[in-house]
Amino acid sequence: MNEASKSRPYRDWLIAFFATLMCVACILWNIEAPTRLGFAILKQQYMAFQLGLALTIAYLRYNGRGETKDRVGWLDCAIALIAFAVLMYAAYDFSWLLKEQAYRPWQITVIGAVVTIAVMEGVRRRAGWMLFGIVGVFLIYALFADKVPGDLIGKALTPVRLVQYVGFDPSAVFSTPLAVGTIIVLLFVFFGQLLFAAGGGTFFTDLAMAATGRARGGSAKISVVGSALFGSISGSAVSNVVTTGVVTIPLMKRGGYSGRDAGAIEAVASTGGQLTPPIMGAAAFLMAELLDISYLTVAAAALIPAILYYVSVFIQVDLIAGRDHISQSDEEALSVKEVMREGWHFCLPFGVLLGALFWWRFDPEDSALLASIAIVLVGFLRGYRGERLTLKSLGNVFTETGTSMVDLILVVASAGFVIGILNITGLGFALTLLLVNSIGANVTLLLLVSGLICTVLGMGMPTSGVYLLLAALVAPSLVEAGIEPIAAHMFILYFGMMSMITPPVALAAFAAATITKEGPLMTGLTAMRIGWAAYIIPFVFVATPALLFNGTWGEVALATALAGIGVAAICAGMVGFIQSKLTMPVRLLLGALGALSLPLGFIPQDHFLHIPAAAGAVVLTAGLLISDKRKGRQAAA
């Protein structure tokens, strides 16, 4: 046995120990154990402790290409040791360092330099060159801000002052993003891991199969429903694709969908999970903290747009199945009654989670902790199709949660660098002023430019990093132009997420293409076509805030009905099928009526013209259905 093989068990044991420690520390922090035991610990001390553990795991586990490695090189081992020692010291002595910060002691310089270098290299390895490059540009800007011409001129920092600020200050690395990641999101990831260890992943897939598998195009509907359920919890479009796609994509291909369509449907359905309440990955918690509003407000605002998104996808997969003569899934599936009889106990932790979030109005972290306790209780008592929680699997959950949080902690820490630089150099105000002044009062043009910027900046980046970056760079200009803050933040979240299916760097579509063995670029373009609604819905809810539950119940109902009719009509026009194939003039007419039905305030028409257009779309569709049925009866006769 070589030296690498001998040392690997010790390395793996150390990673598992640190990962478990991350989860235990999070639980202890959220039950306020330090305070109950008489210790006064700052939030920044806790965050420094978690960041130190995450960096140590990152350098022990991943090589320079971001891949899991067999052995730890001496350089990575040294970086891990230094990062661990420096951040454990910061966690221990943070209160004194904070009091002495104005005098800039050498200890803060060392901490800042180590944190900046270690986080940036960790981001390069795990999040890729895109995020590394964007954050790097901001760091370079901070050094030469006073020499930048035009409106973007700012206050320059010396290298020492820069690392002291971004690598230590509570307004930079130890700010809201890292706090949300290590306090709230970590518990929800723990909840998700517990759910899957108890058999929840299989339950979701079986439930989707039972509910939709026997319908026309059932294999694709399984993908849509399963990915929506799974994606809301997983928090990652790519992991959603590779987890559910290995089941749903072969199902779709066997059912008759082309490989390109199968991959695109899975990519679009998985991406929507990050936009779907109640959990929405980490974005909802970050949005609530940044806007200083309740999580309930964010989840409510996301509900109708998410429904419209999935209605669009569901209609298209159904119409494609009808057009291409695709029947129900060939998979032998249990009935809904049978699935619920075996897995009804999974409803209990979800009931606890939703009740705590929306009824008792607990904080998200407390809700996740209660739901996790509920899963542990029911998971040990009942299994699902051979899967059950055991002491061993529970221990693995702690390890998997900690290791899966490493990437997110690195991303939110680097986002803290950007937020800190925007604040200290004045670049945040300058960017908002530049964008608003260059475009003027044309809100439509501002939204188009902002959507393009969001999609480009989001390419190749994880969900949380996309949202945090755009919330700092783009959202302020939208708010300055008079758009409601929550609408502005939902807008950037949608377009940031669309980078997952928008070439040239469509990570979710490319992940699906590796399963389908189709061309990545064409899979991405097909995903854009199937996910077209996600490029339009943000404009609709910005123009009509009632879709975000900002209005009376009558306004919400009318806006939802108009948007739903518009989306359905456009889908039918795009696919070219209802009960039979449609001629091109009919497709164009349906598309036009659908577009006019959408409650877009930017279109220069009277508001009440949306209603006649929607009525026209409904009447035309009903006429086509009646005509097709008559033709069918005549053919049978």
UniProtKB/TrEMBL annotation:
Domain (TRAP C4-dicarboxylate transport system permease DctM subunit) ranges: 114-548
Pfam families reported for this sequence: DctM (PF06808)
Bilayer topology: Multi-pass membrane protein
Family annotation (InterPro entries): DctM, TRAP_DctM-Dct_fused
Places the protein is found: Cell inner membrane
TM segment ranges: 12-31, 37-60, 72-92, 104-120, 127-144, 178-204, 224-249, 295-322, 343-362, 368-384, 405-433, 439-459, 466-483, 489-511, 532-550, 556-578, 585-603, 609-627
Keywords noted in UniProt: Cell inner membrane, Cell membrane, Membrane, Transmembrane, Transmembrane helix, Transport
Cell inner membrane keyword on record: yes
GO molecular function, one term: transmembrane transporter activity
GO cellular component term of the entry, any: plasma membrane
Purpose: Part of the tripartite ATP-independent periplasmic (TRAP) transport system.
Protein name: TRAP transporter fused permease subunit
Organism for this UniProt entry: Roseibium aggregatum
